[in-house]
Amino acid sequence: MSTAMSVGFRLPRETSEIRLLESALHHHCQKRGYEEVMVPCQGAATKDNNRPLRGDLTQMMGLMVSRGYFTLGDEVRLRCSGPIFRGDSEGYQFSAELVNASSPQSDTEVLTLAGEVMGIMGIGRATLIVGYPAALREMLLAGGLTPEIASQAENHLRRQDLVSYGEVLRGTELSVAHRRALSSIHRSMGLEECRKFLEEQHGLHCERMRRLIFELASLPEDPGISVNFGLTGSFDYYTGCVFQGHCGMAGRPVLTGGRYMIHEQPSVGFAVEIDAVVEAREVTRSASRS
Question: What CATH number is associated with residue 83?
């Protein structure tokens, strides 16, 4: 990210590119039934009566839901875009959320939408990777790891420290089947391979993941999704599947999302880091010129 972009200044070319991308994302999600909302730049007051600047759009839409602006008898589809503030930097984000939806079909809907959004970003070949932290923990505990050791293993996977993760497994007494399973969960699998892998796993969250994989595999077109149980997500509020969108020209995910609770309402959604997309497009253009 350029210095200008990191502090909120955007030059004419960057501004034009952001606006065009923002418009395309809104137009596509509108066709899928997602209604646009606007949220304040400041969050809810803290115990110190401070109102921090929003760090992402999902939490602000959650605040809108919690204040009763919507009748939640049915599913609610929302979209929003605008600046976000993290530390000393400012970014720009687009977010789409499906609220009051708990079925595997709702996960499939949002994952399909995320894949479609990746396709209109103009960043070349893109990959959508899905993980499931709660299913990962079930597998770690079923393999014989104590809760403390399982937490260590999860932290190593979150940091992508596969060497330390391997040391945890080597230091734990495991059956042959569990060692084989736990040694492979950090690599990417196709949907069919993941389905066969989950046939040998047990637990509530593994069953939920199995149902999601079934829904994704039943789509009329290949959604282009891979599964990596080592993907744990960057936020603690995720309660089900998590996913990230990557392209080879970006040094960070251009899209992140997952399942979570918005004030006791089961929800699933994603956010596009528009600045990351703009950077990836610029790198793509530079590579094509060289």
Answer: 3.30.930.10
